[in-house]
Amino acid sequence: MTTTDTAATGRAFIDNDALMLRARHVSKRFTLHAQGGASIVALTGVSLDVERGECIVLAGPSGAGKSTFLRCLYGNYRATGGAIAIRDDTRAERHVRIDGAEPHDVIALRRSVVGYVSQFLRVIPRVPALTLVAEPLVSRGVDELDARERAAALLARLNVPRRLWELAPATFSGGEQQRVNIARGLIAGHPLLLLDEPTASLDAHNRDIVAELIEEARQRGAAIVGIFHDEATRANVATRRLELSAPAAALQTH
Ligand SMILES: Nc1ncnc2c1ncn2[C@@H]1O[C@H](COP(=O)(O)OP(=O)(O)OP(=O)(O)O)[C@@H](O)[C@H]1O
Ligand SMILES: [Mg+2]
After folding, report:
1. Among 9, 166, 175, 208, fewest CB within 10 Å belongs to which?
2. What is the per-residue pLDDT across 79-112, written as a single tens digit (0 to 9) for each?
3. Atom 16, ligand 1: residue with shortest CA distance
């Protein structure tokens, strides 16, 4: 990161209460050690500011780096260039650099600030759907009975059949698992939400319900960055779009 990047981020989160995320010139290159050290450039120089109440839709062709960018924002992938700052009001500077953060800072930030919904549910064996969905609330200190009530309401809203609530999702259909995943991602009201194709396995009716839930989160002031595979949902939820294009000469051997 350059001195200009530091200066740009320095007071930004103090001066602007609405700013939740600032990404500057983010790039990501994967080195394939198992394949002769070939490297893949997945992102070059992506910049984005996201404020409360905004829903930014990432668009662009398959392979353009949309999921990679989202994973860099969540701290799953470490950006190889640029800077990513996320609001953290527990700090004097009101932000933390996720691209250089220590694991315990990343974990703390995920508990209270950043929520992430991927396309697939990571199924934990033997844990019932209702418990899975209630868990992010319980871990934030909400009383267990309250948490389970709110989880039940959300599962009902997403049309997950009541007979499934006390079962582990391993045997659920793809769409049922996806709805459990969405409920788990949205229940805690994180102020920054990252959504990677959360509706890909859903029918049109349930897709619309998810779009409504996203809209409600936005109205409550959440900042959202999302990837959606269908144009109807994109048009439904976006307040702004960020177009990514596949970097030229993405595969480099050296
Ligand atoms: N873990 C990884 N290791 C190596 N290369 C990766 C890795 N993750 C992503 N890539 C590469 O980065 C590029 C961008 O992939 P990414 O999944 O971000 O695209 P995308 O825009 O989300 O595409 P899609 O719309 O198909 O989901 C691809 O060329 C992909 O092969
Ligand atoms: Mg993707």
Report:
1. 166
2. 999 999 999 999 999 999 999 899 999 999 998 9
3. 65
Give the max Cα distance, the chain.
Answer: 58
Ligand sitting nearest the alpha carbon of 42: 1
CA–centroid distance, 41 to ligand 1, in Å, is 9
Question: How many angstroms is it from 60 CA to the middle of ligand 2?
Answer: 10
Quick one: which of 118, 128, 119 has its CA closest to 171?
A: 128
Q: What CATH code is carried by the domain that includes residue 129?
A: 3.40.50.300
Angle at 108 between CA 138 and CA 179, to 5 degrees: 50
- The verdict on pTM exceeding 0.85 is yes
The CB-side HSE value for 183 (13 A sphere, CA atoms) comes to: 30
What is the domain range of residue 18? Answer: 3-252
For residues 229 and 6, give the distance between their C-alpha atoms in angstroms, rounded to a whole number.
34
Take atom 9 of ligand 1 and give the residue whose Cα is closest: 68
CB count within 10 Å of CB 235 equals: 12
Report how far ligand 1's centroid is from the alpha carbon of 250 (Å). 11
Summarised one tens digit per residue, pLDDT across range 13-37 is 999 999 999 999 999 999 988 888 8
Mutate which of 67, 197, 229, 252 for ligand 1? The one with the most ligand atoms within 8 Å of its CB, which is: 67
Half-sphere exposure of residue 27: CA atoms within 13 angstroms, side-chain side: 13
Q: Which H/E stretch holds residue 63?
A: none
User: How far away, in angstroms, is 150 Cα from ligand 1 center?
Assistant: 35
- Domains in the chain, number: 1
66 lines ligand 1 (CB under 6 A): yes
